Amino acid sequence: MSIIQLFLDYASALVLPAILVGFPLYGMIRKVRVYEVFVEGAKDGFHVAVMIIPYVIAILFAIGMFRASGAMDFMTDLLRPVVGLIGIPAEVIPMGIVRPLTGSGSVGIILDMINQFGEDSIFVKMAATMFGSTETTFYVIAVYFGAINIRKTRHAVPAGLIADIFAMFAAVYVVLFLFG
Amino acid sequence: MLNYIWGGLIVLSLVFALTSDVNDFLNDTYRNDKPLPVTILLEDNFDAEARRQNVQVQILTKDLMTHYSDSVMTGDTWSGALLYTSAGRELRFAEDATLAEPLRTICDQTGQNDCRASVQGTPTSAQWQSTITFRPVRWVKMNAIAAAAIDFAQTAVTLALGLIGGLGLWMGLLKIAEASGMLQGLVRFTQPLIRPLFPKIPKDHPALGLIVLNLSANVLGMGNAATPLGVKAMQELQTLNETDDTATDPMVMLLAMNTASVQIMPPVTLVAIMGLQINQLFFSIVITTALSLIVGITAVKVLGRLKRYREVNS
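Above: the input entities. Below: the structure tokens describing the complete assembly.
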């Protein structure tokens, strides 16, 4: 483990308890009626969770149907020759397509790939790097914009997808550079 | 754009499902109503009149290959039961029987854990040569997309409701941070760093502090905390929004930074899957994340200037 990793490991273990205790403690010092204020704020949590439901349903059911229809295999076959030209192995294309759509789907793909190619394989490293370096774009959009009822998303989707596509390429090249 | 992608996903899934089902129909992939030769191995104390008898089913490789015109299938012997009902004799495969395609799909379609086929003829010897016919299988993918739609809609509600606890906890803590002046302190301290990316947020606005908290939680891989912090930041940004339902520049930027992911700690799920291998991937993930974050930010800035994406009120 490198020093940076060790530091981050400690930081992420200590930050949460520090906040959980620190915020109310500081509030008490500043004479805030902490309990009443906390409850006031926490009320909003329920409201937000209910508010995002329609948005998350809309996104997830469309993605679920798309996955179940077998369209993913077709797209992989379609993209295979195109991305092959720029050095992207066909084995990692499914990950590139699924990652922005669903988190559980991409976990499934990594597990499949480990079974198929073994943990040490360069393809698994590429897929894992893709997984670690991007987010489930459509779900994040549904939650963040759903919480404030934003329906016209402007350039959020194209910008997110550009970053995702770039991350797919970058993951392949970076892994090739480091391990290839 | 989201309208097109969303509509596209739905229409495409119908097109693909239909294509696949029509293809199955034309090729008769599942050999509907066509008998498959099998050998049923009866037990010593077999009684032809009994309602239920344990048996073994033997299907030969060459029979499977010719029946399904598939050169990679291999035959095997499976355990099951022979049922004798008013409808005639039926063969039920054991629940844990592992069947290869297309038998697996046929079984999934005829009923979960209840894979049956009708058996022709009456038992003759302990090694009874017979034929079985599965129930006809049609519209596999059409059924699958309909089931998936309902399934995922349910998942969406489970996911959203699962957020209530985390959202409540963080929103409560943040309210304390706001009331105690902590958030304002954080804003003053960090705004020189963060405001260049969000020039439209007024100076000293609490949204800046929440954005910093959201990004820090992301960096440390605390996904459970990052979502409520991001939502709260979005709520603050919404108070500055002059429209009701249109995203503002700072909102799109914050979203892009979250979807591109700014984390340095690998996500917990990935650590769980990869185990110690993750140490090797630490640097490849950090480098890729940094690069894609830069691209994401640039994309937001550049696309925001295009006519079709420009803010309504500016």
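Note for the figure: Chain A has a mean pLDDT of 90.
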